[in-house]
Design a protein that fits this description.
Elements: H1 2-6, E1 17-20, E2 25-27, E3 41-44, H2 47-52, E4 56-57, H3 72-83, H4 91-96, H5 101-112, H6 116-133, H7 138-144, H8 150-161, E5 172-178, E6 185-189, E7 194-199, H9 205-216, E8 219-222, H10 226-239, H11 256-266, E9 274-275, H12 276-282, H13 289-297, E10 310-311, H14 324-334
Parallel strand pairs: 2-4, 5-8, 9-10
Antiparallel strand pairs: 1-2, 1-3, 5-6, 6-7
Length: 341
């Protein structure tokens, strides 16, 4: 990684961040600032980690700003998958396209929490799931999806979906990682609705995913959908300060009380806050402040359903699953006190 810093190799942008002990600043790879000595640097996977370690973002390369595009060499690999969604892209195919399989694997691990091979395997399984639901036979689907044997296909399918392909009758939800200036988010959607949007480092993430599986009987695969693309686009505009109200198709089922709280959250104006106590009174349950707080914590749609706009009665910040520092930044953004993009 230090070689990438010394050579100012921008192809590593998004793979890691470098912090300089002598200046207290962290940067992206490729920053035009003076190259530090090896003994004075340490590396981080996310800007948040560098900030929590006491480093300030560089004013030249601006590591908190979102990278506008996926690196071109990653785009070439994704194009191979998209051009032949049922085929398996091999390391030979990648090298032939000028892409290093090792670098691609590291980039996918950092940005998506999985290897490129796992990404395309999940994508192929998702396609296979839909074919079986549409009436294709298991043998035909395994062959067309690039598996060498039906048994190998059945095993991969069982591991991914928790069921055999002959019993594939539940919905498929697509999972995508969305970069943001406050850290990566995980979004879950199908072709109709957004079901989850949460910061990837939140402890409740696994619980939220299990809740979706229990409620909808769904399975998860990686890949894009039109809803996820629109979610990413609207988030970009929000963080740029040009979007004040989201317009996304949401599926946000919960208990009757939770849904009442979540509906009220969406009504809180951009840049304003309400207290837990006042929200409880509006719902006709003035003694239910703790229940309101718990419903806030159970909200599966961060930012879009703005639970960050609920504060303590004295105006202090309290109880945000994504971290109080993010709650502070979101409110500063909405009040025009902070520029993130």
């Amino acid at each position: 990684m230090y070689a990438a810093i010394a050579e100012r190799d921008r192809s590593f942008v998004g793979v890691f961040y470098v912090a300089v002990k002598t200046t207290g600043i962290f940067c992206r790879p490729g920053c035009p600032a003076r190259v530090p000595k090896r003994e004075n640097v340490e590396f981080f996977a996310e800007p948040r980690e560098a900030m929590l370690a006491g480093y300030r973002p560089c004013l030249r390369c601006k590591p908190l700003e979102r990278v506008a595009e996926t690196p071109g060499w990653v785009g070439r690999a994704l194009a191979l998958v998209e051009s032949s969604p049922d085929a398996r892209v091999t390391e030979y195919d990648l090298r032939k396209s000028g892409v290093s399989p090792e670098r691609l694997r590291r980039w996918f691990q950092q940005n998506h929490g999985m290897t490129f091979q796992a990404y395309q395997r999940g994508s192929r399984l998702g396609q296979a799931f839909r074919k079986i639901q549409d009436g294709s036979s298991v043998i035909e689907t395994a062959t067309l999806s690039g598996w060498d044997s039906t048994s190998g296909f059945r095993e991969a399918f069982q591991q991914a979906f928790g069921t055999s392909p002959s019993r594939a009758d539940g919905p498929v939800f697509t999972v995508q990682r969305i970069e943001s200036p406050l850290g990566p988010l995980v979004a879950v959607a199908d072709d109709a609705c957004l079901y989850l949007l949460e910061f990837s480092d939140r402890r409740m993430m696994q619980t939220q995913m299990k809740t979706l599986q229990s409620r909808y009987g769904c399975s998860f695969v990686p890949g894009p959908t039109s809803v996820l693309k629109e979610t990413s686009d609207q988030l970009s505009r929000y963080f740029a300060g040009s979007l004040r109200s989201f317009d996304l198709p949401l599926d946000h089922k919960g208990t009757e009380f939770q849904e009442a709280v979540w509906r009220r959250l969406v009504q809180i104006p951009y840049g304003e806050t309400v207290s837990y106590g006042s929200l409880a009174k509006e719902l006709g349950r003035p003694d239910a402040q703790r229940a309101v707080g718990k419903a806030n914590g159970d909200n599966r749609l961060a930012i879009v359903v703005p639970c960050h706009r609920v504060v303590a009665s004295d105006g202090s910040l309290h109880g945000y699953g994504g971290g109080l520092w993010r709650k502070q930044r979101l409110l500063e953004l909405e009040r025009g006190q902070l520029t993130l993009l």
